[in-house]
Design a protein that fits this description.
The protein has 12 helices and 7 strands. By secondary structure, the chain is mostly helical.
């Protein structure tokens, strides 16, 4: 009897394991549905939320695919596949959060005084319901030594790095993250070097996540040097002060 029960339980467990691996193997690593959404509704980092809300089926289809991936299967992917998956999931769930409350002037209008937008249970992943904060801090921030994710995760605010008009994919992840860094540093409203004042003005992102950049390169300015526009890159900022610019929390909406 016990032997039969063991075989039954082992058989079920093995079947679930095989199913989860097959399920993850079937996931489209090109992230095509989300790529189509971004190419259709994002321009210069801004989102056409009105049009996307009216035609959200492809975004929802992508998030259904994300939710169907098992944790076991996910862990069998390469690191770059995992990072691309989680970054795209974060950005896609952020778009859905905005659509579910649109029209709003800012993502910070969503939620309550005690539980803001990033602490809402809106992320369906690995059979659990999580928050955006969990994906960012307890998954991406904890499991990967990759500070460039801060150029890719977009919180639907104008002060964020621009939402990329294409999905992140493993085989071009380094190229995409480097390009995101260059785009963000080229925005003089958020980041700039003032040689006359011996001051580097940076987005508050580099204050909030400064430790991640320091761990990677020994300092924020040292990490950023390769990504500045050519003129700023030629300036030695080793002894420059850092000042932080104001963060614009208004919605990253087209035409606004």
């Amino acid at each position: 009897m016990r032997g039969t029960l063991f075989v039954q339980i082992f058989g079920v467990s093995l079947a679930l394991l095989v199913w989860s691996l097959v399920n993850a193997a079937d996931f489209d690593q090109s992230h095509a549905p989300f790529d189509n959404v971004l190419k259709s509704y994002v321009k210069d980092g801004r989102v056409n939320y009105t049009a996307l809300k009216a035609h959200r089926q492809e975004l929802d289809r992508f998030l259904d695919q994300v939710a169907a991936v098992s944790e076991t299967g996910f862990k069998g992917w390469s690191e770059k596949q995992q990072i691309a998956f989680l970054v795209n999931a974060y950005n896609a769930y952020t778009l859905r959060l905005i659509l579910d409350h649109y029209p709003v002037k800012s993502i910070k209008d969503i939620g309550t005084l005690f539980k803001g937008p990033w602490d809402q249970p809106v992320v369906h992943l690995f059979g659990r319901t999580l928050t955006l904060n969990t994906v960012e801090h307890k998954m991406l921030g904890k499991d990967y030594s990759e500070p460039r994710i801060h150029f890719a995760l977009v919180c639907a605010a104008k002060g964020c790095p621009p939402l990329r008009g294409q999905a992140y994919v493993a085989d071009r992840l380094d190229e995409q993250l480097d390009d995101q860094a260059r785009q963000f540093l080229a925005d003089s409203h958020e980041n700039r070097v003032d040689a006359s004042r011996r001051t580097v003005y940076l987005s508050p992102i580099f204050k909030w996540y400064g430790e991640d950049f320091e761990k990677k390169s020994g300092g924020v300015l040292r990490f950023l040097k390769p990504y500045w526009p050519e003129k700023e890159r030629a300036i030695s900022t080793d002894r420059f002060k850092i000042r932080y610019t104001d963060y614009d929390w208004s919605l990253n909406e087209q035409g606004k």
